[in-house]
Specification:
homodimer; alpha+beta; Jelly Rolls; three-stranded antiparallel beta sheet; about 40% helix; globular; DNA-binding
Amino acid sequence: MDMATRLENLADLGNDHPCLGCAVRELAVCGVLDADALRQFKESGPTVHYNAGDTVVFESDQATNVYSLTSGLLRLSKLLPDGRRQIAGFLFPGDFLGITMEEEHAFTAEAVAPSELCKFQRRQFDEFIERHPALERRLHAFAAHELAAARQQLVLLGRKTATERIASFLLMLEGHCHSVCANQEIAVPMSRADVADYLGLRIETVSREISRLKAHRVIQLTGRQSFRIVDRSRLKQMAEG
Amino acid sequence: MDMATRLENLADLGNDHPCLGCAVRELAVCGVLDADALRQFKESGPTVHYNAGDTVVFESDQATNVYSLTSGLLRLSKLLPDGRRQIAGFLFPGDFLGITMEEEHAFTAEAVAPSELCKFQRRQFDEFIERHPALERRLHAFAAHELAAARQQLVLLGRKTATERIASFLLMLEGHCHSVCANQEIAVPMSRADVADYLGLRIETVSREISRLKAHRVIQLTGRQSFRIVDRSRLKQMAEG
DNA sequence: GGCCTTAATTGATCTGGGTCATCGCGCCGG
DNA sequence: CCGGCGCGATGACCCAGATCAATTAAGGCC
């Protein structure tokens, strides 16, 4: 969507619309709805807030609700019986939770940072989709995009070395920095434990590899939760092999 | 879909329908189309055949076609610059190739066994979808299902041991045995190299772990490409931890 | 059937990343 | 300002699975 269309749509909302202040309106699934449909959509469910660490949905819960993330950060994770954890992905603002449309959630979704979500009853949501084919198409596009991302992550987990995983991850974080990271400072909004469980490594290995990148002047740490890329081409090169 | 509905739909086709002999008609995306739409759909593209080892689409090719697999087996794989390979998944009869709807294919699709596919021009296919919302919904469901499967595989690659990976894989193969594996004999239709690249292991490790399962009387080999499960509960237990 | 090719198995050894242990730092509360 | 706590960093050692190296077995083809 180009800037002109975007501004036009935003202007269309009028000044009492519930989605007026939403930073991810065109980015999220809602982006395809016109002002009236959007109002009806939004008013079909509440806005909910979660603090860092809170569980939004638990794996094996009935999937009675779906969500659109408007701010914050979620992680999708799964625990093995003995406590090993794998994070299947992170949800950023604009992402949709419940795209798999299964009866049960397969993964636990937890807030990594304080997060705001638009909550919808799945039953009502499904009905709404029926009446808005454009929304169905958009959800399909979202699912397709997430599938591509998940498969890319399969390559990382199945075949990449620790160094390559960290380099790939830092570049991914850079890609998610839109407005926030002016002056090239990139935020790492999750803990080392989350990074490790996302990359199929242990905390110690994540720490060591980051230190190595720092020592080789490929990145520069600007705090425990932020860094700067010093040599992007080398980082890119390290990300593959 | 229950048996009655299924037979009814099949009967509906009439006896000069191009899809009459198709073994996966209800299983594939086509399953939601009525006889007329299905005919029109099928006649919009040819049936193509590939031998084992043939490439159907190459990663980074323009995605000008999409396919529905009617028989055989495909693998979706990606190569790293130095030759390391990861298989992101296998496509079984009824599966759809091109679901991600990206402009470029992200993965190479190759025939593991002789395969038949219905081929469609993406352009025409997209138009067809526009006119048949049920098809869009079905594709969405397929994408959602593959996303769930890919995420499950992330857990395997990120956190499971070699033994757990092999056990999980053998159980997955069992799940794909519908009619073929009467008398409990389960086919392993791909090479050890393919298994290894799917599970993020080396060939030797795959071989050793299979031998171990055999030695512990959990499975029984009935040929290099087939086996029988002797102790399913133990295999299931080994698949997690 | 016998030869040749290719895949699979098995054994011996090596190593990247895991494990265990310690340390340091920043932050918060008193 | 100090003490404690939780996260992250670092060091020493270990092990699951990789690597290297034969060996064996299954087709395919005269």
